[in-house]
Write a structure and sequence with these properties.
Blueprint: H1 11-21, H2 26-43, E1 46-50, E2 57-63, E3 69-75, H3 78-90, E4 99-103, E5 108-112, H4 127-144, H5 153-171, H6 178-186, E6 198-201, E7 210-212, E8 218-220, E9 226-229, H7 231-240, H8 247-258, H9 262-283, H10 288-300
Antiparallel strand pairs: 1-2, 2-3, 3-5, 4-5, 6-9, 7-8
Helix pairs in contact: 4-8, 5-9, 7-8, 7-9, 9-10
Enzyme class: transferase
InterPro entries: Kinase-like_dom_sf, NH2Glyco/OHUrea_AB-resist_kin
Pfam families: APH_6_hur
């Protein structure tokens, strides 16, 4: 018997995946409802409806036999599915969403529904400090657990980030921004990792990937995991969690909670900011003025990372 599907994925999901992956995602988008339905049948779940969110997956709401609500997520990329499930397994019981069931052949998993509703509950206050504590907690679990089979930060930096920065610097007409970008790029070869800080990194700490449970505690979801120096996550969170707003405050909080000095975090912030600046310039993203302001501020800061 064919499993009952939810029908076509929502228009927002379709648009985001096509924007992210291009026309090659068309066939998968047509198959996604059947993948979710097959996983639901296998996991003994009842599908309830789609949750229109995410850029790399199709997400549905479902319930278990006892009525417990869960998230059912189907990934477009099998490799990204494997990496995310591997990291979530290492972090099980920590400040993230636990994996309930997984179907490797379908690249579909049932995940804990955080906060009792899609998108989680509302934060209760002291958001910056609470999220920093969650990042530190995730890193502690990543150091203690077995190393998952995910890419290394060194590989990502050397084989992905630096080549795309060089390519964009050469191909884009940056006008008056060229000098600042060149100055930023001069510091890229000096980035160094501290092996003593190696952990499983979330590596995608945008605000949309931090939700809150019913007690107001942060959960870090939708990782793009790497293994490497914790400084990368702290720099990413500093720059991108709430672009342009409270960057200096996050940097100070990151240094206090992680015990990684501001002068060690700041060069990574600059590297991430210039990478984002060039990408936003290339696609003419509306956020370009914000990342430009962040990059300018980081480059204007002194050796201690302050004004």
């Amino acid at each position: 018997m064919t499993a009952q599907t939810l029908g076509e994925v929502p228009p927002g999901c379709r648009r985001r995946l096509l924007d992210h992956y291009g026309p090659s995602a068309e066939a998968w988008l047509r198959a996604a409802p059947s993948l979710l339905a097959e996983a639901a049948e296998r996991f003994k779940l009842s599908l309830k409806g789609y949750h229109d969110a995410g850029h790399a997956s199709a997400v549905a709401l479902a319930t278990t036999l006892d009525g417990t609500p869960v998230i059912l997520k189907a990934w477009y990329e099998p490799l990204r599915y494997r990496h995310e499930i591997a990291a979530l397994t290492v972090w099980a019981g920590g400040p993230t969403a636990d994996v309930i069931e997984a179907a490797d052949d379908l690249s579909v998993a049932a995940l804990e529904l955080v906060g009792g509703q899609p998108g989680g509950a509302a934060p209760l206050g002291r958001e910056r400090q609470m999220v920093a504590g969650a990042i530190q907690g995730l890193h502690s679990l990543g150091r203690r657990g077995p190393r998952p089979d995910v890419p290394s930060l060194a590989h990502f930096r050397q084989q992905v980030v630096l080549p795309r920065i060089r390519q964009r610097v050469q191909s884009l007409d940056l006008g008056t921004w060229a000098t600042l970008v060149e100055e930023t790029c001069e510091g890229l070869p000096t980035l160094r990792e501290d092996p003593d800080r190696t952990t499983v990194l979330h590596a995608d700490l945008y605000r949309e990937n931090v939700i809150f449970d019913g007690g107001g505690h942060p959960r870090l979801i939708d990782p793009h995991p790497l293994v490497g120096d914790a400084v990368f996550d702290w720099a990413f969170w500093t720059v991108y969690y709430d672009l342009e707003r409270e960057v200096a405050d996050r940097l100070a909080t990151a240094a206090r909670i992680s015990r990684i000095a501001v002068p060690e975090i700041t060069p990574w912030c600059r590297a991430l900011a210039v990478d984002g600046f060039l990408y936003y310039w290339e696609i003419d993203d509306p956020a370009l003025p914000k990342i430009a302001k962040v990059l300018s501020s980081l480059m204007a800061s002194g050796p201690e990372g302050g004004r």
